[in-house]
3(Or 17)beta-hydroxysteroid dehydrogenase
Amino acid sequence: MNLPENKVALVTGGGSGLGKAIALKLQSDGMTVAISDVDSTVGSATAKESGLFFIEQNVADETRWTEVVAELEARFGALNILVNNAGIVGTVDSDSPEHCSLENWRKVFAVNVEGVFLGCRATIPAMRRAGGGAIVNISSTAALLALPQHVAYSASKAAVRHLTKSVAQHCAEEGLNITCNSVHPGNVMTSMWKDTIAVDRARTHGISVAEAIEEALASSPLNGATTPEDIAAAVSFLVSDDARRITGTKMIVDGGVINCSTYHSRKHMEARRILLKMQGRP
């Protein structure tokens, strides 16, 4: 693969989980990588152990974006790549259209949508000055499916998808040599997924968290879990020179769940049968 060496990348939410895996992959590709995170303790520790540059940042803070871009350009001379990874699920409780509070809706949108918008807006001028670049926005398969138990999260990730297309077209129309694409992870076994989505699925279906995780794994046609490293590989490709003709598109990394929607493994069917029996349904 034609890797973009000597490029400077910023990965938001890079202290842990997907962001950390993405940052380490881009670093291994030969890039200078900065990570930002609202948790300075976690972010600093990751940067120290991996040789990354850390900046404390709340992505929903408009002023902070201006400061971050200026600091990176001053330190490294340019900013070529942005990975808008920072995001939150919101409350661990069922967050249906009937019961989602306006407070939680706004909290989720502030980080997941406004944070991504502000990141794109702040870095496009820097990439213009650098002669081009690449933006990857981390969305979710929740943007493509109904997820009524987490309506704020799924709606926010759908917004990220459509923001991505608008940014891509703007950059193309302006002749900026900047691509913008979205990556849509499925059930990635991060602590955030286990502590929120899996917990809510377990509560909704009256099963244990371990059983909820097992059912999620069994639903994948390719078997097993999608890992943070799988997502990082997708991002690595989209910011590489090999992807220079790809913009405005979505890359789904979910083991085939979305596009093989009629697939049900024997293990998954047995799990569903047991679940329905527990619920007293035929």
Notes: The chain is about 50% helix and 15% strand. Residues 94 and 204 are 8 Å apart (CA to CA). The longest helix spans residues 102-130.
